[in-house]
Description:
The complex is a heterodimer of chains A (427) and B (313). With 427 residues, chain A is α/β, with parallel strands linked by helices. In chain A, 44% of the residues lie in helices and 15% in strands. In chain A, strands 1, 2, 3, 6, 7, 8, 9, 10 and 11 form a nine-stranded mixed beta sheet that branches. The N and C termini of chain A lie far apart (63 Å). Chain B is built from 15 helices and no strands.
Amino acid sequence: MHVWPGNGRRQALAATTVFATAALGLAACGSSGSSAPVAASAKQTIVFAESGLGTEGQQTQTAINAFQKANPNIKVKIDVLSSDSTTYLSQLENSFTAGSPTPDVFESDVTYPAKFAQAGWVLNLTKLHPDLSQFFPTEVAAGTFNGAPYAVPWFDNPEGLYYRTDLIKTPPTSPAQVVSDAQKAMKTDPSLKEGLAFEGAKYEGAITAFLTVDSAFGGKLDPQNVHTPGNTAALTWLHDAIYKNKIAPTAVTGWQEGQVEQEYVSGHAAFSINYPFVESLATSAPVKGNTGYIPFPAGPGGTPGSALGGEMLAINAKTAHSAAAWKLIQYLTSSQVEVARAEVTGDPPSLPSAYTSALYAKAPYFQNVKTLNTYSQPRPVNPNYLTVSNDLQVMLSEVFANTKSPAAAISSEAAQIKSDASATPSS
Amino acid sequence: MTTNVSARRILPRGARPAAGGRAAADRRLGYALVAPAVILLLAITAYPIIANLWNSFHFDNLSYGDLPHKFVGAQNYTKMFTSTQWIAALERTLAFTVVTITLDIVAALGLAVMLNRKFVGRGLVRASILVPWAVPTVVSALLWKTMFDPRAGFVDYFLGAVHPAWSNLTWLNASVWRSWAVIFVADSWKNIPFVAIILLAGLQVIPNEVYEAARIDGATGWQAFRRVTLPLLKPALVVALIFRTLQALLVFDVIYIMTGGGPGTSTETLSFFNFYTFIDSTDFGYGGAISVVLVVMALIVAGGYVRFFRTEP
């Protein structure tokens, strides 16, 4: 039975082809480039991309609402992207490679600004005359590329060593003492499952855990020169913690920050390497009131260890609303707003001046955080950091799984790390 | 009374017959109905393949957007074929493919033969063995990862009941062979039922008379299986082998969820290597080359199977 008479069928096919071609054509067209810059006083809408969920997301919304009230001509549309960092980065990159002027302002992990700056996706902030001396210097350095600032510190998350003050009366003063304290604690308290919990899974967090320990042995994570005695000693200490001194379980190879926090907060670990958020979760026995938080104690020839984490704020290079975007950044990084955020979400302020007695009254542990922020080490500020990070993760994973000795792992990966860090495609 | 039956009488009043007759008209109708789906498929599959092929012969790194997208010939391919990491990933992927296919086909064949017999509850069993395959791989990988967790999982719990020292084994990322073991378990749990259902369908079309004839000729159970069942199962086997081989060659989600390629790079497969070339290194030229080679490998495999199992002379 014929449904379509001859002419109609041809018309239908033609219509389908035209529609499909038009759809593909529209999809292929990217958005137009940036137009003339819009003044800060003009009425405008800017898009702010961030990844916060839960209390963080709510606090951001609260801050944005207050900003909009103070600046009635600027409307801020919050674009909540994935809370998974790999997906978040991909989502941002999709917008940037399409040449999109939005998001106008966005949140950036401390390891991304160099990559974004190299690719020309973020605005050079020099012409906005930022006063970056008011922030913690290591985080400012993370947002600096080729001497110019590309991102402003929003919150500064240093990683440090947690310990149970009821089991370890005085804080350890050397890496060797961490080991002996952990072993003693495991003997005296049978409810402990391990002496030390840290992030040993194959991901970025393992690098920050290593970095927390690194400077205590005089090590420095310089991709051009990874095979140093200090780095080898730090890696050996972590390896021996699992396989020689047995203060950490092999299960650490599956642990990220969440599992390490659970181990510590449920009283299974005497020591743990983690970020400040654990303090706000240590609210019940046996850790309540029994938690100490210090930089990793220095050994001979080393300095106290802490790894830099945190988020920064940056402006899209293609945006026409850089003036309004800059106003938003200045607002979010002002002392009052940062303190309010710290009190609610536990995100440590990136301004040393925000660490006031009022803040300490609300949450005393911020005193420890300020100390840690003075020692925190950044990861290499390099546009190829993600590739370097992969190599470092491979190296750490081999050591934590004991498939290679620390010295062998470092020496075999060092050349690869150096070449990946310095790789620049020849034109 | 005689009537002239002609094409015109069959058509509704007022309609013209289509050019070329009914068969040609039906063909054109077929094309028209398939056209939208084909255009969509071409857009989704052909466009990325061609784009990757194009990119693989150029320099294309997103992080260096200001550099020109220039033609570099086979540079990305020579880089890949001389890269120790790629060669190692290739070896691992091929080894994984061979082992997992052998495991899956043998186990699935046994399962299919069992399900072909009559027993109480057969319908329920046949329906329930498809559940693993219906669960998305990411979900099943996460589930198995939790089950093999030394603190939260049941595997160590039961092992510990057998032998106390085994109650605290770390499986993933703490040992190469244990990581692979868990990956095989998660992958096979999902895929054996799928292969079994395909083989079961193939078994069901084998007529009973053939078995009766074999029995009359004095064939044992094993001989009947080898000489009657297996040859007649060839079409279903080809389908199952093609599906499984391609899935195993391109395996990614199980690796990504369970080990992230660890410990070190010992569970890194070609797809995973491809993934972080694109995502972490944002190198679309090199990544394109890796993708193209993967596609070519998949085509060779599929074509090889069809040729090898061809039954027509």
